[in-house]
């Protein structure tokens, strides 16, 4: 048996390739950022060709650095930023437009119109999602309506759509020469076009956005030994590697955190925050502003569903301190700066740069820093930024408890922000429950590797994966109940100040 499994993790700000051994330990990686294209306020784009070029480079570099080649990999998994929308020509491989990123808000009028005329309730019932700028369907509609020639090309069967997993899978398996045009249910369930019960594209939902069905990829299981194909000899792997796993990034992190039992939850801290609660084979309809989504679908088994709370801006708020305010020079400095003060000094920062996602779903909201006085310093703003990450997660945790009837007992955390010890302590304080970080904090790539490895027998079953999970650090809450309640009440007051800022 070959010794390793690879995972391509195509994220919002960077692409990386990681290699794992049978114990789930990282053997090697390489990572490169790509450009964030911001044509106007609220618009966020990526260059799909740059993403494909970065993917090839990180694969080649990681393999070469560790003297590995295609025969050393038992399988390959893909994980990706979800909802981000690419439309390209199947004959030339050229995108018709930049990828429209999940954070982009240009489709707010499309989402508002769906809500106003009642179609929003159909989307909630069938797709488990509220009409929102976040999801892919409105982005596809915008490209069809605003980019010359795309509508006609789609009707001729030339223009095809995919999230970034589909874009990379197509290239890795041949591109214009027979590349596989596929996705998995975790990504398809983020489009507003897939029926949660059938795990197939829904004609009524397609009609809402006037999207030709022929544009869409085939939906196959998240972990499957045969559905995706293999990499090509002339590609970045230099030989055939079986592609057997595909998961949207947050579902991949849930698998990486081995949340395989109903009631188990994780929270990933990246560009945004994403908390998922495994609900088993039951489709749980949210009444509290959460999303109902596919958690994973392993071939030969029933699909597993989840409730998700998606938060648009958390780690990217720290980037904003660095890049726009320039009060820190790197993300790690946010912790040192915030530690200079004992509390937030009455300052609350609601980073609603792209509106508010779960549980509010308000595209009219915009960011606000409130409670400022002459006493406050940049350290208070840094601490308020870390607290904003944690308060937004509490909003989601409260909604999950309301929908599921199960109170959170411990929160498993992962992602880049978890290296910030102060932020994780604040998360425990604000939630009032312990926070647990695993030894392998980059669980998104690990989950994609697990999905791929399970499909080929590299790992026997999910019980074997559980044996790989080990805790690195646990934070216990230290705030009093009164301190927690007072802080949360002020946070909710600050959130209210951000609403109705934009006319939609």
Write the layout of secondary structure elements.
Blueprint: E1 4-10, E2 14-20, E3 26-33, E4 45-46, H1 48-65, E5 73-80, E6 86-89, E7 99-100, H2 108-116, H3 119-127, H4 136-146, H5 150-155, E8 159-162, H6 164-172, E9 182-183, H7 185-188, E10 194-195, E11 200-201, H8 203-209, E12 218-219, E13 243-248, H9 249-256, E14 265-269, E15 273-280, E16 291-296, E17 304-311, H10 315-325, H11 333-338, E18 348-350, E19 368-370, H12 378-404, E20 411-414, H13 421-431, E21 435-438, H14 443-455, H15 462-468, E22 471-475, H16 481-497
Helix pairs in contact: 9-14, 10-12, 12-13
Describe this structure in words.
This protein has 504 residues and is of the alpha/beta class. The chain has a domain at 4-250: ATPase, nucleotide binding domain (Nucleotidyltransferase, domain 5). It has 16 helices and 22 strands. It has a seven-stranded mixed beta sheet with strand order 16-17-15-14-20-21-22. A five-stranded mixed beta sheet has the order 3-2-1-5-13, with helices on both faces. It has a two-stranded antiparallel sheet with strand order 4-7. α13 (421-431) links the parallel β20 and β21. α9 (249-256) crosses α14 (443-455), α10 (315-325) packs antiparallel against α12 (378-404) and α12 crosses α13. The protein is globular and about 65 Å long.
Quick gist of this model?
The chain has helices at 48-65, 108-116, 119-127, 136-146, 150-155, 164-172, 185-188, 203-209, 249-256, 315-325, 333-338, 378-404, 421-431, 443-455, 462-468, 481-497, and strands at residues 4-10, 14-20, 26-33, 45-46, 73-80, 86-89, 99-100, 159-162, 182-183, 194-195, 200-201, 218-219, 243-248, 265-269, 273-280, 291-296, 304-311, 348-350, 368-370, 411-414, 435-438, 471-475. With 504 residues, it is α/β, with parallel strands linked by helices. The model has no long low-confidence stretch (mean pLDDT 94).
């Amino acid at each position: 048996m070959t010794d390793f499994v690879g995972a391509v993790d195509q994220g919002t700000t960077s692409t990386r390739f990681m290699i794992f051994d049978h114990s789930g330990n990282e053997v090697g990686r390489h990572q490169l950022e790509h450009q964030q294209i911001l044509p106007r306020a609220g618009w966020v784009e990526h260059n799909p060709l740059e993403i494909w070029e970065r993917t090839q480079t990180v694969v080649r570099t990681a393999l070469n650095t560790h003297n590995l080649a295609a025969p050393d990999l038992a399988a390959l998994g893909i994980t990706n930023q979800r909802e981000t929308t690419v439309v390209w020509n199947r004959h030339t491989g050229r995108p018709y437009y930049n990828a429209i990123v999940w954070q982009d808000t240009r489709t707010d009028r499309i989402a508002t119109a769906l809500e106003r005329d009642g179609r929003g309730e159909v989307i909630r019932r069938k797709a488990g999602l509220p009409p929102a700028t976040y999801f892919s369907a409105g982005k596809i509609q915008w490209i069809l309506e605003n980019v010359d020639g795309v509508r006609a090309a789609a009707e001729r069967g030339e223009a095809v759509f995919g999230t970034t997993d589909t874009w990379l899978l197509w290239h890795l398996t041949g591109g214009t020469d027979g590349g596989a045009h596929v996705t998995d249910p975790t990504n398809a369930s983020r489009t507003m076009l897939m029926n949660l019960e059938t795990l197939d594209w829904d004609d009524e939902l397609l009609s809402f956005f006037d999207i030709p069905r022929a544009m869409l990829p085939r939906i196959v299981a998240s972990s499957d030994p045969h559905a995706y194909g293999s990499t090509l000899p002339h590609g970045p792997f230099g030989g055939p590697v079986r592609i057997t796993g595909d998961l949207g990034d947050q579902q991949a992190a849930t698998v990486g955190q081995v949340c395989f039992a109903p009631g188990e939850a994780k929270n990933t801290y990246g560009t945004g925050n994403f908390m998922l609660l495994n609900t088993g084979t039951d489709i749980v309809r949210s009444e509290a502003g959460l999303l109902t989504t596919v958690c994973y679908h392993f071939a030969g088994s029933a699909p597993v569903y989840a409730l998700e709370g998606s938060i648009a801006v958390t780690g990217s708020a720290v980037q904003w301190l660095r890049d726009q305010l320039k009060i820190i020079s790197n993300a790690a400095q946010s912790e040192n700066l915030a530690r200079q003060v004992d509390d937030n000094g009455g300052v609350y920062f609601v980073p609603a740069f792209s509106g508010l996602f779960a549980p509010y779903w308000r595209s009219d909201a915009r960011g606000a820093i409130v409670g400022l006085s002459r006493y406050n310093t940049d350290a208070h703003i840094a601490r308020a930024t870390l607290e904003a990450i944690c308060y937004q997660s509490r909003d989601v945790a409260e909604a999950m408890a309301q929908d599921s009837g199960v109170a959170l007992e411990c929160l498993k955390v992962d992602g880049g922000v978890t290296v910030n010890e102060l932020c994780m302590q604040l998360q425990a304080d604000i939630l009032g429950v312990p926070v647990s970080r695993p030894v392998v904090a980059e669980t998104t790539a690990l989950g994609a590797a697990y999905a791929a490895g399970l499909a080929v027998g590299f790992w026997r079953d999910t019980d074997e994966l559980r044996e790989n999970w080990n805790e690195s650090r646990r934070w216990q809450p230290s705030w009093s109940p009164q301190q927690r309640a007072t802080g949360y009440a002020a946070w909710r007051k600050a959130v209210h100040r951000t609403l109705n800022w934009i006319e939609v």
